[in-house]
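Hi R.,

Here's the chain you asked about this morning:
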Amino acid sequence: AEESGGEEWRQPGPPIWLIDPLDGTNNFAHAFPHVAVSLALLEGKRPVVGVSYDPLREEVFAAVAGGGATLNGQPIHVSDVAALADAFLATGFPYDRRTAPDNNTRRLDHFLRRSQGVRRAGAAVLDLAYVACGRFDGFWEIRLQPWDVAAGVLLVQEAGGKTTDFAGRPDCISGATIVASNGRIHDPMLRVIREGAAAPRPDQ
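And here is the predicted structure, written out as tokens:
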């Protein structure tokens, strides 16, 4: 199932590969050097193999269920940042952001006021891989697709992090809503998503 809207991954049956040959299409179109190839093997709707390949930096992030995560063959681990105020985050915006009532900008505003910083680089699988290796401390996004997140979800999990949907449920492979973090800031991130402006700020 490539980037084509296929729903085969939801159906019972043999293992299935989810492949995105170019995550960061707009980046590529504008010669912005932040793209990746993403592939994941799903068994029973759960990723058991995940790979993100950044050809421009020659970085291969890989994970096998129960076997840890690596970058170019070396083990990686999520960061140890414990406070949201010190966290470096990533996010993205859906393609229908100009017309959709929920386009993620309100959440961005809330996180900008409660974290060290937020980046929008435009390739979800790399955002997740960067959480896995500690470059980012957390990531959230809406309306992604399974091929955008499956490999990255396994990378984060095998690197010691946590992935859920916005409700805190572990099943986030659909990509409808996803939060990934080092685990230590996960609950504070979910609180910001749920409470918005009512969530505590560092100066409170």
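One quick note: The radius of gyration is 16 Å.

Cheers,
M.
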